[in-house]
Amino acid sequence: MTCGILFQATRAVPVDLAVYRAGAEFARAGIDLYAGPVATGLLFTYPPFSAILFLPLTVLGLDVAQVAVVALNGGLLCFIARRSAARWWPVVVVAALCTEAVHTSVNLGQVNLALVALVLAAPRVGVGVAAGVKLTPLIFVVGMVVRREFTAAAVAVGVAAGTVGVGFLLLPQDSVDYWLGGLFADSGRVYAEPGSSHNQSLRGLLLRLGVESPVVWLAIAAAVAAGAFVLAAKADRVLAVAIVGMTGAAVSPWSWGHHWVWVVPLIAVVGRELAAKRWMWLLPVPFLLGTLPPVLATANPLGAGAVPVLTSGPLWLLVSNTYLLLFLATLLSIALSRRQASRGKSCLRSSRSELP
């Protein structure tokens, strides 16, 4: 299956790779990055710093760039799996490739796996650099503060600010447009229909349920994020990265399915916990299986002109919100696991107190 995915990714020009490469070409030529579409009718929606990072793609021929990006994503996936699962990392790689998040990231030439790798490899500097490419990794700064890792948070913010400074230095007008013109907050540049089933965030779910109030969305997002941060505060590093990364995708105004690549470390955690016979971790498994591309395609096909099989009803609602349900099932598993551990400690203390 792996070879099939990699071959498919190199057959046609990956859409996001084309946008990255075109954005870098615009930046090199001094053309306005944000005035209109840069490639295949799509806008460049990333910070100016990212266009600078993508400049090496302009040196490579398109065919070479495609192969290089596929190989890079494969290497990054292996790195993430090794950091998350030690000796069982090949199993995690195979399982992750079966998810729509990773499958689509590879096929589109996306940068998502690089963000996960940066956060896992260098939590301080990596978060700052990742935020320079996409804004959502800034949520890890909040996670650091909740964990009382104030120095790490300060370093991450400093590095992120540095990426903004580099953008103003090398692409001043684009930086003014993006940061001071408010383009960074315009999710409509990503997709014009926020209630589409393509939007795998809380905002998308609420809009599909007919709840249009931004106040309700912000209140629910804040409550969910607060609960997730509390659970992440006492988690080990791999689980914390998975939780906070998924929280960013959940509370973002717009999240494509491939933004949920944080399922890679989650797969490692679920496997680890089930191997230890902590059966409450079976809860996320059905939703992980629900992220298989053929399953999601029944309600959310990505191909041009593709028609969904499911368009309404409970099953459609379930499938079209699989990533969010996976996230909530994960939070529930953590809470139940903590409760079980707490009961175990309580029973141990009680039994000791009864000893003569």
Q: How are the SSEs placed, and which strands pair?
A:
Elements: H1 2-11, H2 15-29, H3 48-53, H4 56-59, H5 62-85, H6 89-97, H7 100-108, H8 112-121, H9 123-133, H10 139-146, H11 150-170, H12 172-180, H13 202-208, H14 214-233, H15 237-251, H16 263-275, H17 285-289, H18 293-296, H19 313-319, H20 322-353
Keywords: Cell membrane, Glycosyltransferase, Membrane, Transferase, Transmembrane, Transmembrane helix
Protein name: Alpha-1,2-mannosyltransferase
Subcellular location: Cell membrane
Task: Please describe the structure with a list of short key phrases separated by commas or semicolons.
mainly alpha, 0% strand, disordered N terminus, Alpha-1,2-mannosyltransferase, hexosyltransferase activity, transmembrane, transferase, glycosyltransferase
Polypeptide structure, described:
With 356 residues, the chain is mostly helical. It has one domain (9-183, 191-349). Helices cover 67% and strands 0% of the residues. The protein has 20 helices and no strands. The chain has helices at residues 2-11, 15-29, 48-53, 56-59, 62-85, 89-97, 100-108, 112-121, 123-133, 139-146, 150-170, 172-180, 202-208, 214-233, 237-251, 263-275, 285-289, 293-296, 313-319, 322-353. Helix 1 runs parallel beside helix 7 and helix 8 runs antiparallel to helix 9. The chain is globular and about 60 Å long. The relative contact order is 0.10. Residues 1-11 and 350-356 have low confidence and may be disordered. This is Alpha-1,2-mannosyltransferase. It is a multi-pass membrane protein. Belongs to the glycosyltransferase 87 family.
